[in-house]
Amino acid sequence: FQGVSPFDFAMRQKNEEKKRKEREKEAKARMYNYAGKGIQSLTEANAANVNSVNQKGKEAARKQKEDAMKVNMATSGFGVEQAARNADFSRDKAWKDAQRMEREAQKNVNM
User: Which residues contact 12 (CB under 8 A, 6 or more apart)?
Assistant: First the structure.
């Protein structure tokens, strides 16, 4: 009898694949272990503080930009503009009435 049975060969291949994956997982964990470490130096601490401040500023700018997109410019200043138009209308109407009265008064003047 030469070689191994196909079943034993498949089992050995499966076990070797499992061991290989386990070794790769451990190597990956060692390679990315730096992410789990704490801040180790003052420069890293300062950089983290600066980054957090910059991130807050970026978030505020992003929120402001999103809020600006939601504003309807057609209706936002309409109340103020409408009040100004009403005031102008009454003033113009009063001026036109005064001019009309003046013309009416001058109709009877005979030169």
Answer: 4
For the chain, the first-to-last Cα distance in angstroms comes to 144
Q: Model-level pTM greater than 0.70?
A: no
**Does residue 76 come out as left (phi exceeding 0), alpha (psi in the -120 to 50 range) or beta?**
alpha
pLDDT tens digits along 4-20: 888 888 999 999 999 99
